[in-house]
Amino acid sequence: MSKIILKPFRDFLRSEQIGGVILLFCVLISLLIANSNFGDKLENLLSYEMGFRNDHVQLHYSVSLWINDGLMAIFFLLVGLEIKREMIEGELSSIKKATMPLFAALGGMLIPAGIFVLFNQHTPTSGGWGIPMATDIAFALGIMSLLGKRVPSSLIVFLAALAIADDLGAILVIAIFYTNQLHWDQLFYAAGVFALLLSFNFFGVKKLIFYIVPGLFLWYFIHHSGIHATIAGVLLALTIPTNPEKATSPLEKLEHMIVRPVTFLIMPIFALVNTNIRFESKMVDGLTSPLGLGILFGLALGKPLGITLFSWISVKLGLCTLPSKSNWKHILGLGMLAGIGFTMSIFVSLLSFNDVAYQNGAKFCVLLASLIAGLCGYIFLQLVHKKKHSR
Q: Is 312 helix (H, G, I), strand (E, B) or coil?
């Protein structure tokens, strides 16, 4: 099948390196705005509520929520489409390759959480153990896109699959340990919509409209259940039909429809909104506190250690195989990029503490740890590529 048809998501991550540049530019712009005289105006804009509601429907939310729960669901839809296609005909089509991201994600959650607990046990901040467990898939893939062809394409798919598994784990942690109440009736409705979508796939329904419209209801019910709504994008992607033949499938058509809006609109907006962190002098002092050390070491050290260790164990036990054309240095560099916790980690920080001082300190540490992880991962993978081609 034509590479143009098969690889729109990969084009988004590799050929469209400008997307990663725009993403980083928006991060800097957001930080500058947040720490300028326009910071309050940006906060007011993001907290402005829009939409509609009545006795039966609630769709009246802040601008920031519409972006993080609404627009980002489209990003997760795009990633989910690529994961599904790779499971059917690509890098994740064998059981050994498909299960390795799961083992890696497990290590990337348990080790950082353990490191945080070591620093914070018997302290007022012990409840923040979930903060260093998450990977920000948008930023991690954005940094990976800057490397272009200097990393194997299989590594990009592996990172996407790992990050999705990681985020699903984080969502479960939030649902079980950080959510006050799950609305089971909404989950039941969501399950019904998901079953309907699966039946459309089973009976060979090809028109995308029969998936997109129910997908909107799926998003609504999951959002109101108390679970992070972006999971709806992944679930919807799993139901979109695809095939290994040359004919363009509905899955590939949908990828082509959304890849550029995600690259040049959704991700830059996401970066502008979520890097809106105002620096305070107290934040620097908090870096050496148990909370700060737990987050910094959890993300910057625990992530690459956990991902590499669990991947190595799974391969040595014969349960998994490395992604094609990759080696253990690639896995270590990928683990560093997975230390970019950012949005999900900040989200867990807000759920972990009622004290604003703890929240702000945690946000600053997450930002710093994510910056360290991103730089280290990018530089390390650059060096791996140069060393390989200098021989």
A: helix
Q: What is the pLDDT of residue 22?
A: 80
SS3 189: helix
Could you give the angle at which helices 153-173 and 137-147 cross, rounded to 10 degrees?
170
- Give the pair of three-digit tokens for residue 307: 């991902």
Q: Which two tokens stand for residue 133?
A: 């467990």
Higher pLDDT, 304 or 263: 304
Long-range contacts of 379-386 (CB under 8 A, 24+ apart): 380/329, 380/332, 380/333, 380/336, 381/147, 381/150, 381/151, 381/330, 381/333, 381/334, 381/337, 382/147, 382/150, 384/329, 384/330, 384/333, 385/147, 385/150, 385/151
Contact 13, 144 (CB under 8 A): yes
Total length of the chain: 391
Q: Is residue 185 within 8 Å of residue 222, measured between CB atoms?
A: no
Tell me, what's the pLDDT at 7? 54
Q: Six-digit token pair at 222?
A: 């999951």
pLDDT tens column, 118-176: 999 999 999 899 999 988 877 888 888 788 788 888 888 888 888 878 877 876 777 67
Homologous superfamily in CATH for domain 3-386: Na+/H+ antiporter like domain (1.20.1530.10)
DSSP result, 76-87: HHHHHHHHHHHH
Percentage of the chain modeled with pLDDT above 90:
39
Amino acid at residue number 91: E
Q: Cβ(130)–Cβ(299) under 8 Å?
A: no
With a cut of 60, say whether residue 317 has pLDDT above it.
yes
Which pLDDT score is estimated for 6?
45
Domain coordinates of the chain in residue numbers?
A: 3-386
Q: What token pair was written down for 293?
A: 């050390």
Phi then psi for residue 61, to 5 deg, are -135, 170
Q: Which two tokens stand for residue 127?
A: 């409840």
**Rounded to whole angstroms, how far apart are CA atoms 170 and 389?**
38
Q: Report whether pLDDT(23) > 80.
A: no
Those residues with Cβ within 8 angstroms of residue 292's Cβ, 6 or more apart along the chain or in another chain: 286, 361, 365
